[in-house]
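To: structure desk
From: M.T.
Subject: fold request, one chain
Message: Could you run this one when you get a chance? Sequence is below, nothing fancy, just the single chain.
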Amino acid sequence: MQHRNRYRLRQFALFSLLGLLGCHASASAEVPTELQGKWSSHPGRCEPVSGEVDVLTITAADLGFYEVGCELGKATRSGKSLRFDAQCYKGGSLATRGKVVLRRHAAKEIDLTLEGFSWIAAKPQRFRRC
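Reply: Done. Structure tokens follow.
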């Protein structure tokens, strides 16, 4: 019985630590609320269509579209651009570190660039607010 209680205490401590680390990672993301939400690569369409329409979803701590997911970290601002430290993955690949750049063009238009990832070219992709 005592061994089981120690085991449960260790589990609780481990999950508590992981929870604190997870909260810290999310807290370091600084995505402005006006950039959060859904964005589409095709004007007037907000459902993904394979090969035709990508839908980008941005939250306070991460973003995702098609097979790509990124956890966002510390941000730096340069003019109209926000550059985030990020860990991203594509499909079933392991997460790797790089940069996510969001650049605002108009109230309802942004560019997304992923830099430093071997599985994607670092060129901007335009999205419009859904």
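Reply (cont.): The first helix runs from residue 2 to 28. Let me know if you need anything else for the meeting.
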